[in-house]
From TrEMBL:
It comes from the Archaea. The keyword Transmembrane helix applies. The chain crosses the membrane at residues 20-39, 60-86, 98-122, 223-246. It is a multi-pass membrane protein. The keyword Acetylation does not apply. It is found in: Membrane. It comes from Halarchaeum nitratireducens. Belongs to the UPF0014 family. The lineage of its organism: Archaea, Methanobacteriati, Methanobacteriota, Stenosarchaea group, Halobacteria. This is ABC transporter permease. InterPro entries: UPF0014_fam.
Length: 264
């Protein structure tokens, strides 16, 4: 009989579940292809990439469980830089998009992780820091991506209006204030909607997992809210940071609106 961690019953059961999930995802991609929506390549690559990345991360975490907790800082920093690259790819036409996204994610997610670890909401262990930190970083990334994407659309749509406003002597910050505000608001819509529906429309996976593992449902609810509040704070700080930095890169020293087709 083969005795190997690779043939652990739990892992084999997980592979069966992965196969079932992939079949469902493949059906959706197939329908998209049949309808000619031209999204099957992007969606298919995203699903495949997501599977490979999450399996690699599981393997990395398994290895990190035996190393000092300080190693988790490097893992989280890598997540932040990866998140900034993904956010930049969605808003690459904005000058300095990668630098803006990096600052937003590092500040937004970094502050939340440090503060909540200091107060004990996140245990200072690799087992806790990396998974919880990844959720916070991912939501900081989403907020940065949405804020930059919306801001780019706003500027391209209202470029003539902004330039006319600048010609009247209005400062750059005032000329784009309304558009930055719309970007920040758009970035926070998913997080705000999640908070509104928490415990009513949906029970998040973390709370469900804690209850299934035997934790007290009330404590599971409390901790789930803590996590959602951390996600909200990270997303808010990230989007606000991106909004604050956009002006620096969107205008020249002569207060002229830059072309959004340069380097990012």
């Amino acid at each position: 009989m083969i005795d190997s961690p690779l043939f652990d019953p739990a892992l084999m059961r997980g592979l069966e579940q992965v196969a079932a999930a992939l079949v469902l995802a493949a059906v959706v991609v197939g329908i998209v292809s049949l309808r000619g929506l031209a999204l099957e390549r992007e969606w298919g690559l995203a699903i495949g990439r997501g599977f490979v990345q999450i399996m690699l991360m599981g393997s990395v975490i398994a290895l990190l469980l035996s190393v000092p907790v300080a190693a988790s800082a490097f893992v989280i920093l890598g997540m932040m830089l990866g998140g900034a690259w993904i956010a930049h790819s969605r808003a690459g036409e904005i000058p300095g998009a990668f630098r803006i996204a990096t600052a937003g994610i590092v500040l937004g997610a970094g502050v939340v992780i440090v503060v909540m670890t200091a107060v004990g909401a996140i245990e200072a262990r690799v087992r806790d820091l990396v998974p919880v930190g990844s959720m916070i970083v991912a939501n900081g990334m989403k907020a940065s991506s949405l804020a930059l994407d919306r801001f780019g659309d706003e500027v391209e749509t209202h470029r003539e209006e902004i330039e006319a406003t600048l010609a009247l002597g209005v400062t750059p910050s005032r000329a784009i204030a309304r558009h930055v505000e719309r970007g920040v608001r758009a970035a926070l819509i998913p997080t705000v909607d999640s908070m509104r529906s928490l415990g009513w429309v949906w029970i998040p996976g973390l709370m469900t997992g804690m209850i299934l593992s035997g934790e007290d449902p009330i404590y599971a609810a409390e901790y789930q809210f803590v996590v959602m509040a951390m996600i909200f704070a990270a997303a808010g700080l990230a989007s606000l940071t991106c909004g604050a930095l956009v002006e620096r890169y969107a205008f020249t020293d002569a207060h002229q609106l830059r072309s959004f087709h340069g380097e990012s």
